[in-house]
UniProtKB/TrEMBL annotation:
Domain CYTH: 5-204
InterPro entries in UniProt: CHAD_dom, CHAD_dom_sf, CYTH-like_dom_sf, CYTH_domain
Residue spans of biased composition, Basic and acidic residues class: 1-13, 201-221
Domain of life: Bacteria
Name of the molecule in the record: CYTH and CHAD domain-containing protein
Region: Disordered, residue numbers: 1-25, 194-221, 395-414
Domain named CHAD: residues: 218-503
Length: 507
């Protein structure tokens, strides 16, 4: 069973941390009332990666470590500079299944193999306040790194590591750093021990760690479209572990990235060959649908729960809250299991490989080399024209199923136009940025209407279940009526909102 710890730390190197130097005196750090010597721990860690170092390239580390008070498997996922989530699992001979899943979007079908062995003598001090509470752990680490295979280089160094206590104030690290700098130390150039080990052992073995080539500034239409696509591909891969961990908003964000990619394929069909992108777009649509099972459930549950919470007691009849909670939990559990199975499945991993190949070697058409101010602007205008037609169709329909459908289609096209404008913004500037804002506003308005349509369908379902169980369906009818009113309010607001958007659109 894996557990997670948020790790906030900084590493230091320099003249005072070389050759087995003593730990700097930190007694003068503001807030520190005492320093507790915790002794020396002998740590032995083996780091795993694919032979082509996919985890290291993404600043992820996976290790099996013995010694110290946290022996086991550790997977570290970057959150921000100096902040990582460390996910732990008990010691075993092979990579734990839970951790292997969290790196699957990077590893896919490649094998995880031992890459580097690090043995450290860790001299630990605890900085405590006047109540004895831990403020930070400071360690002097004397490290020996041995590359396993691939040249079998070795390296050795000493570094100082400062890790903030759980729930500590990150500003405290600045105070410690001020003292360390006075002692002649500086921030380590390497982001982790593994990064340093790979660089150092690579040099010793006659190799130099590859550095990513600097990205060029987008110049033509193809450059702008590809920059946007690469960002969405990166988002999908990076969000995969968050979705598996069920982190807030992760499913929604991953779904948005898949939709952005698919929309870009369709909007910029003159830039990228649709004979290549359409099959991939179909797979993205499938993935978005799988991600949407749980997400749509969350949105509906939140909406109905909030609506129920606003009702006065006189309008509550029967175990409505219990039935809604039971309905939501049953569906969420099933959708969650299904989603993890999707992420572990061959179809999803094949899609990731196809996306990686596409952004690496894109199927560019002749228009890709054209002036972005012309090629991209034309594509955005075409999408906006489709939105305009659909909104006008919706406004021409009387209230009812046909209008509901037309408004839903307009919402989908508004979303696509928004994404096309996002990709265009670096090239077109303010006009595209303004269109993004307008389409987001329209999408929100029409989305509220569609949510009402879905809420009414769910309320009919819940009312039928309640009736079958011999419960009152009165409250479901009240909520249904209120949803009708919300939808009617959106329909009444749409003409003025659309007129304003048309007047402001300048792309």
């Amino acid at each position: 069973m894996a557990d997670t710890k948020r790790e906030i730390e900084r590493k230091y190197e320099g003249p005072a941390a070389e050759g087995g130097a003593e730990m700097p005196d930190l007694s003068g750090v503001p807030g520190v009332a005492g320093i507790v010597d915790k002794g020396v721990a002998e740590l032995d860690a083996t780091y795993y990666d694919t032979p082509d170092q996919r985890l290291a390239a993404a600043s992820l580390t996976l290790r099996r470590r013995t010694g110290g008070d946290d022996a086991g498997w550790h997977l570290k996922l970057p959150v921000s500079e100096g902040v990582r989530d460390e996910i732990r699992a008990p010691l075993s001979d092979t990579v734990p299944r839970a951790l292997a899943g969290l790196v699957r979007s990077r590893v896919r079908d490649a094998e995880l193999v031992p890459l580097v062995r690090l043995r450290s003598a860790r001299d630990v001090r605890h900085l405590v306040d006047d109540s004895g509470a831990l403020l930070a752990e400071v360690s002097l680490d004397r490290v020996r790194a041995d590359r396993i295979g691939a040249g079998e280089g070795t390296a050795a160094w000493t570094e100082i590591e400062v890790e903030l206590a759980d729930d500590g104030d990150p500003a405290f690290l600045d105070k410690v750093e001020k003292k360390l700098r006075k002692a002649g130390l500086r921030r380590s150039a390497a982001s982790s021990k593994l990064a340093k080990a790979l660089g150092e052992t690579g040099k010793r073995a006659g190799k130099r760690a590859d550095k990513p080539a600097p990205e060029k500034e987008p110049a033509d239409a193809g450059d702008h479209v590809l920059a946007y696509l690469r960002a969405q591909y990166d988002a999908i891969v990076e969000l995969d572990p968050a979705v598996r961990r069920d982190l807030p908003d992760s499913v929604h964000s991953m779904r948005v990235a898949t939709r952005r990619m698919r929309s870009t394929f369709r909007s910029y069909g003159k830039v990228l060959d649709r004979a290549v992108t359409d099959p991939i777009g179909d797979e993205l649509k499938w993935l978005a649908g799988e991600l949407g099972v749980g997400r749509d459930q969350e949105v509906l549950t939140e909406r109905l729960t909030e609506s129920l919470g606003r009702l006065p007691r006189t309008l509550l009849s029967g175990p409505v809250r219990t039935r809604l909670r039971t309905w939501a939990n049953a569906r969420r559990g099933g959708s969650r299991r299904r989603l993890i199975a999707v992420l572990d499945g061959k179809r999803y991993l094949t899609l990731l490989t196809a996306l990686e190949a596409l952004v690496a070697d894109p199927p560019l058409l002749e228009a890709a080399g054209g002036d972005p101010a012309k090629v991209i602007a034309k594509a955005v205008r075409k999408d906006f024209g489709k939105v305009s037609d659909l909104v006008e169709q919706a406004l021409d329909q009387p209230p009812g199923t046909d209008r509901d459908h037309a408004m839903h289609e307009a919402r989908k096209k508004a979303k696509r136009t928004r994404y096309a404008a996002e990709a265009a913004a670096p090239a077109l500037g303010a006009p595209a940025a303004g269109l993004v804002k307008s389409m987001k506003s329209l999408q929100s308005l029409l989305g509220d209407h569609q949510d009402s349509v879905m809420a009414r369908e769910t309320l009919r379902e819940l009312a039928a279940l309640a009736h079958t169980a011999g419960e009152s369906s009165f409250t479901y009818g009240v909520l249904y009526g209120r949803e009708e009113q919300r939808a009617a309010a959106v329909e009444a607001a749409l003409p003025e909102a659309w007129e304003k958007i048309e007047a402001q659109t300048a792309v």
